[in-house]
Amino acid sequence: MPIFGGTSIRPPVSPAVDPRARQSPDSPRQSSKMSKTIELGIDTFGDVTKDAGGKMLPAAQVIRNLLDEAVLADQTGVDFIGVGEHHRDDFAISAPETMLAGIATRTSRIRLGSAVTVLSSDDPIRVFQRFSTVDALSSGRAEVILGRGSFTESFPLFGYELSKYEVLFSEKLDLFAELLKNGPVTWSGDLRPPLEGVVIHPPIENGRLKAWIGVGGSPESVVRSVQYRIPMMLAIIGGDPKRFRPFVDLYQRAQEQLGVDEKMPLGVHSPGHVADTDEQAQEELWPGYKAMHDRIGRERGWGPTTRESFLNEVRHGSSYTGSPETVAKKIAATVKALGVDRFDMKYSSGTLGHDKMMRSIELFGTKVIPMARDILASDKAAA
Q: In the chain, how many domains are there?
């Protein structure tokens, strides 16, 4: 299944944090406001869906439908919408920033970001310029989630060697961290010529571009997030969310050992679907869920997805699928268990229809968000 930043998550074995590791006291530090009020967002990879007659829609129509979904999310109180980057026929979005620029002109309050930007096969300066443009169009609502990508199509497409998968991300992230300072850049690495006092245009108009690192599968990625003072967005796509608490503990411990003055926010991304009842949500999601898992499973050597495994994720794992009350309770439980500041639900799933996704977004914004916040507020007051 597509996820942020790499292979599917395994329970971490926490490495020691080296206090001599890279520290950037001048690196951008983002506001702790998120830690005070939970942010609840949605994201999508622009999954190619079917029409009412069961025919696959053209990618162009999926893109237009996604714009309508974003406008609805803005209108119903959703805090954030993220769009992923893929370069294959089952996902319509290959240029997230262009999609976000279109959304920016049709919305007024919702934050706009990627989910994720595959930095390894892109140019950090161009990524920064594109997001600073989206930030200008949206009056400061842009943010970027940086990752290595769980699919590899972009590497040969743009002329990169898969053997340099890790090296590419590490060096490009190092440069991007310098760009986030929003000033003249002096930097050198091994994969490109150095920069000496270069000013990148257009600059961020106010403050700094909000950035996250999408973490998919390694404790090293957790520590790297803290080293660069770029908050972690943890992709949890399977299993009990509580078993990923060691990642959070490592994230907190790294901040202490590396001398982070202000608590860095923590985000979580997981899949889900909202309908009027639990049964309806399950029935609507299952066909698209199975189609997506089986398609990717054939590519990666997995067996077919079963209804039993699907229901197990819905009832006990990391699928936030059900009525608004069920989903709100499950989100609140994860927020409390992991100390999350932002939770994003991936609302698209394979061939799940546009009409069903629109209803899911409507219920998420008007029902799930206020319910989840009420639960968290009541628990905090009781404590």
A: 1
